[in-house]
Specification:
The protein is of the alpha+beta class. Helices cover 27% and strands 29% of the residues. The chain has 2 domains: 42 residues; 50 residues, no CATH class. Strand 3 and strand 4 form a beta hairpin. Strands 1-2-3-4 form a 4-stranded mixed sheet, with no helix packed on it. 2% of the residues are buried. It is elongated, with a radius of gyration of 32 Å.
């Protein structure tokens, strides 16, 4: 009778626990890599600087132009506004901004 206290129940043939644990760890690792990629890519959202002002731009679009008209260390910020000065040509707001 004393030996019966040390007997254990047989283990099930199919152990699904460790598979789900590994799957959860893989999911957490994937999520961590994804969120770190998103955080880093948000920092690098620089706008391209062009040498000449483009002729065709849509309303609300903004372009940085380095054509030397604003002086050393400054860029020209060109924004297309609503309305037309003459038929077919959009109004442009221009101001100089530091680099």
């Amino acid at each position: 009778m004393r030996n019966r206290a040390f007997l254990r129940a047989p283990e099930p043939a199919c152990r699904a626990g460790p598979i789900f644990v590994r799957l959860g760890q893989a999911l957490l690792n994937t999520a961590a890599v994804f969120f770190s990629f998103v955080a880093v890519s948000g920092i690098c959202n620089a706008q391209v600087v062009v040498k000449q002002e483009p002729l065709d731009m849509r309303n609300g679009s903004t372009v940085l132009v380095d054509d030397g008209t604003c002086g050393k260390g400054k860029l020209k910020l060109v924004t297309v506004t609503h309305g037309n000065a003459m038929p077919g040509a959009p109004l442009r707001a221009v101001k100089c901004v530091p680099r």
